[in-house]
Specification:
The chain is α+β, with helices and mostly antiparallel strands and about 100 residues long. The chain has 1 helix and 5 strands; from the N terminus they run H-E-E-E-E-E. The radius of gyration is 15 Å and the shape is globular.
């Protein structure tokens, strides 16, 4: 898939979003996207529970509204939560680690 393709349908974007979220839940990903001000940003991010900070829930913690146009991720460099507009993604890079069979 090429997120730079302006000819993508909503179905293409939905498939890309589903794929990207599933990868983010498994590992860290380097995402390049265009910010609202037009500048480019590269972010090493994740949704992998093993890489997320411990979070204590309190009664005042309110769940966030679901947003179909953005993805909220944990920025591994700034150690904070960030988000980006899915349709502004221009590049996705990930490293696949070899799996070893201990047989």
């Amino acid at each position: 898939m090429n997120p730079n393709n302006s000819h993508w349908t909503d179905a293409n974007w939905s498939e890309f979003t589903t794929w990207l979220k599933s990868v983010l839940k498994e590992t860290s990903v380097r995402v390049t996207f265009t910010k609202k001000d037009g500048s480019s940003r590269v972010m090493e991010c994740t949704l992998d529970p093993k890489l997320l900070p411990q979070r204590t829930l309190t009664e005042s913690t309110k769940p966030r509204k679901s947003n179909e146009t953005t993805i909220s991720v944990y920025d591994l460099e700034s150690q904070d939560w960030r988000s980006f507009i899915i349709k502004n993604v221009t590049r996705v890079e990930l490293t696949l680690a070899p799996q070893f069979d201990n047989k």
